[in-house]
Design a protein that fits this description.
heterodimer; A: mainly beta; Porin; 13-stranded antiparallel sheet; 3 helices; 15 strands; B: mainly beta; Lipocalin
């Protein structure tokens, strides 16, 4: 009896101490954090040349100007490559948070490209956690440069297609990495005897060095018969200023669309065949995102 | 049978000691505004957790920064990535005391203005905050609201010069608790 009384007394004191504990919020806040999407694995929808796991938000219009100069190794005669410039202008649009479409035109071979990019999975934490993001991109291209071949190439000869799967993960707030296998099919390859369908394995990474600056890396290795071509390799810096992202890079690839950089990159990065280049991305907001 | 008598007695003692209730909510709303000549920025979070201990006057708020929704998704991304760094500092917490909390009338329809003093922790920095709040009791529903403003520099949230014209250095914050529910002792 007495034991019980003491036990209850102690119990009530403990209970009152618990109730008066300093941390009022304890026990009220959810112990299991709600599912949260991991965002900002890359600063832009392109690592450098390749699609990244980032998508445009619904209603965002991304106007991109990409520029590649000539090889720095060409020396003072070509002003270290700055005399030569190749560019691609594109407009990408976010149909929804998970679907982006885009159209671009490159000066190189006067090539037009269209693509659709669909997010399948988005990395998340919390109750329903997903360890990585998965994105599928598919596109068609056609070059429109005048041909001086005796038999003019038809539309099928001038067109090419690609399909790319991008799987990536933001490992920490500073470091993200992705793998991007891609199939490129060309109607008529640049060099006779080259494979029409090329598979390439790609890898990209980002390392944030400050809140608005990051180092980037973008590489693809094509498998198959591509005479005279080398692996496209680019390293760069992303600088973000409000609605703009500036991507400055050194790369051996001239092409800025999938067909061009995968199948038509020449020059050995490690022998100084490097070109300076930049991507400028400006996002315009169309429509209203949310209303409360 | 005697045991049950003691159990009831002690339980009553506990309730007697804490006659004044504690209130909590998980659906409080915090919104903030930055007004400038270039751009108005507004964001809202409707999953604010708060607990108010009437007897001691202690009141606390916690909010996940990632839960703030902006009109422009890009702003939301920049808010989390570049300004409040929500990966590093996921939560903002206010801990304070309501002056004369015990004397607030919680029965019958009533509106009282009270003074709240406390500290706000945001972006890893804690600063004192004091403001007036309004507690409204209407047909049994206890609600609360208050407004105050903070200076971003006090919380080491820096604005790059390029966008300095678009972001007000002072941010107005509005807190609305539509309904405080009374907490049952566990």
């Amino acid at each position: 009896m007495i034991k019980l009384t003491i036990a209850l007394f102690v119990y009530s004191i403990l209970l009152s101490m618990n109730l008066q504990s300093q941390d009022l919020l304890k026990g009220v806040e959810d112990s299991v954090p709600a599912t949260q999407k991991v965002t900002g694995a890359f600063k832009s929808t392109r690592v450098i040349n390749a699609h990244s796991i980032e998508m445009l938000h619904k209603g965002d219009l991304d106007f991109r100007i990409m520029h590649r100069f000539g090889f720095i190794s060409s020396g003072i005669k070509q002003f270290y490559g700055l005399d030569v410039a190749s560019m691609r202008i594109s407009f990408d649009y976010g149909l929804s948070d998970n679907t982006t479409i885009g159209i671009g035109r490159s000066t190189f071979r006067k090539e037009l490209d269209l693509f659709i990019k669909q997010r399948i999975l988005q990395q998340s934490t919390g109750a329903r956690s997903i360890p990585f993001s998965l994105v599928l991109a598919a596109g068609g291209l056609v070059w429109t440069e005048e041909s001086f071949a005796p038999v003019k190439p038809g539309f099928g000869d001038r067109s090419s297609y690609y399909i790319q799967l991008v799987a990536g993960r933001k490992f920490s707030s500073a470091f993200s990495m992705q793998l991007s296998p891609i199939f490129v099919h060309s109607g008529s390859p640049v060099n006779t005897g080259d494979d029409q369908t090329i598979f390439a394995m790609g890898g990209g990474a980002r390392l944030k060095v400050s809140r608005r600056m990051a180092l980037t890396f973008d590489y693809h290795h094509p498998f198959g018969n591509l005479s005279g071509s080398t692996d496209p390799l680019s390293v760069g810096v992303d600088i973000e200023t409000g609605g703009h992202v500036f991507q400055l890079q050194f790369s051996n690839a001239t092409g800025m669309n999938e067909r061009a950089y995968i199948t038509q990159t020449t020059g050995d990065f490690f022998k100084g065949d490097i070109r300076f280049g930049f991507n400028l991305s400006r996002i315009f907001k169309t429509g209203k995102h949310k209303t409360w | 049978m005697k045991y049950s008598f003691f159990v009831i007695l002690f339980t009553l003692l506990i309730f007697a000691a804490f006659g004044q209730p504690k209130y909590f909510t998980k659906t409080g709303k915090i919104s903030f505004y930055s007004k400038s000549s270039m751009e108005n920025i507004e964001a809202v979070n409707t999953k604010v957790v708060s607990v108010w201990d009437v007897a001691s006057g202690q009141i606390e708020f916690a909010v996940l920064l990632k839960g703030f929704e902006f009109e422009k998704a890009l702003m939301q991304e920049h808010f989390n990535e570049n300004y409040v760094e929500s990966d590093k500092y996921p939560k903002a917490v206010f801990k304070g005391i309501i002056e004369n909390s015990k004397t607030i009338q919680l029965s019958g329809d009533n509106v009282s203005t009270v003074k709240v003093n406390g500290t706000l922790t945001l972006h890893g920095v804690t600063n004192p905050v004091s403001t007036n709040a309004v507690i409204t009791v209407k047909s049994g529903v206890v609600a609360a609201s208050c407004n105050f403003s903070i200076t971003l520099a006090d919380y080491k949230i820096s604005i790059p010069s390029l966008v300095a014209e678009k972001i007000n250095k002072k941010i107005s914050i509005a807190v609305v608790i539509p309904e405080y529910q009374s907490m049952t002792t566990k």
